[in-house]
Design brief:
Blueprint lengths: L9 E4 L9 H16 L3 E6 L9 H14 L8 E6 L4 H13 L3 E4 L3 H11 L20 E4 L5 E6 L3 E6 L7 E3 L7 H11 L4 E5 L6 H10 L6 E5 L2 E2 L15 H6 L4 H9 L14 H7 L10 E2 L2 H14 L2 H8 L9 H12 L8 H4 L12 H8 L4 H14 L4 H14 L4 H13 L7 H8 L1 H16 L6
Parallel strand pairs: 1-2, 2-3, 9-10, 11-12
Antiparallel strand pairs: 4-5, 5-8, 6-7
Helix pairs in contact: 3-5, 5-6, 8-10, 11-12, 14-17, 15-16, 15-19, 16-17, 16-18
The protein binds one RNA strand through β7, α5, β12, α10 and α12.
Length: 471
Amino acid sequence: MAGDPQAIPRYRIAPSPTGFFHVGGARTALFNWALARREGGRFVLRIEDTDQARDRPQWTTGIIEALAWLGISSDDPTFEGPYFQSANAAAHVAAAERLFAAGHAYYCDLTPEQVQERSTSSGRPGYDGYSRERDLAPGPGRVLRFRVPDGTTIVRDRIRGDVTFEHAAIEDFVLLRGNGRPMFLLANVVDDIEMGITHVVRGEEHLPNAPKQQLMWSALGHGPPMWAHVPVLVNEQRKKLSKRRDKVALEQYRDEGFLAAAMVNYLMTLGWAPAGDTEIVPWAQIEEEFRIEDVTHSPGYFDVKKLAAFNGEYVRALPVDEFVDACRPWLPAHYDLDTFTAIAPLVQTRVVTLAEAPGLVDFLFLDEPQIDEAAWSKAMGPEWAGPLLDAAIDAYGAASWDTDTLKVELERIGAEHGQKLGKAQAPVRVAVTGRTVGPPLFESLELLGRERTLGRLRAARAKLAEPAPMP
RNA sequence: GCCCCCAUCGUCUAGCGGCCGAGGACACCACCCUUUCAAGGUGGCGGCACGGGUUCGAAUCCCGUUGGGGGUGCCA
């Protein structure tokens, strides 16, 4: 029962199926999860599918998969659900009828247009309580409105403290639509009561709903839950993250090769900080230290660059075999796993996301490297480039094929042309990999093998010898 | 318009009346290391929005101003 101090804490998240999982929702879910886990409580997932206009079964699956990716799943006894709000419609209506019978609600036959007209002509915003005392019976097209009493409501918020709302500023809001279907405010409260929810941790955009809902908890005969409204996530313009302008789908980050652990760590430290000088902390520590009371009061900028930095940290911290394994979904079919595994330690420190990994070493798996024109002209520009390539072809034909020898040979050749290794490696790198940057060259050559390396060097030499194409 | 929330480096934050001439992280800059690029190391740049109080003492408490944000649906 809500309000029973003996009861174990029951947290919940109540997402509506929209086709993707919002990063803000992910953060709220994580906050709830951390709290429920540490307090030995429950984490209830309730799908708020009341709005029939938008709902597809697969969207619910998407929510469950997104949560599981974050580490929130029914594998853990803390998890409860999913429940579906639509399945409880009868209870919502029954609660509405009880409120009506008890005088906490009344019917109104005004259309939305009429409400608007009255508001415009009176100059006062919102519904004016027109039908309060008209004592209307239920009927088609009539909405049921909550009778907001005189007075004030104090919402005790674990993050913000006491927030006072004057009832005068709260209009008699709709409980049941003209077609008899329940509204979100009603369904949400009825479900929370039925599910014994004791703690509500949700986005700050719901703060204005809290007094209305608290009034309903009370009218339905219950004390309110413990509220906590966490600040919203904003973009660089400091506007609430929106799916139209911003990249908000958790799935998208997952598909781009962000690690779940990095995402979780980043989200948890957006608005809260663990003790100590580092923000990169394992979940176990987060769970132990996280206090909802310590969450910041102000909106948090969802900084993809910082997320990327976190991800880089997590990628580098992976044991190599795990790194290779994690990369597999992004590896094209023609990539040989053994070769990729061999070069993996060298790509691991050079990527931010897993999706970047294959592109870094594509030259190992192609018949011919993709030559970048800008890289080509930069590396092949010096007059010593051709002769150096000739010397390399000559030396590499006979050299022992290992990283050290390859390096020593090119060092020698470079010196003969008055170039340090840093410069001398450029024409070779472009000839073999097609780019000026990439994993360490001689390790790459060793893996590529003598024949393919020589073939690419000769091809480059031939191309260099061609007369420059006339413009 | 009305209601509500918020305010420490560009960003995320530590700070809960003296330990703060404000600490860390990301980003940025420089240097070191170096076979390119990364990674790593060292150093640097940079902030308590403003004005009044309270107090021996304020980033920390109070009030106001300004500036942001959220809400204001027969959406959730």
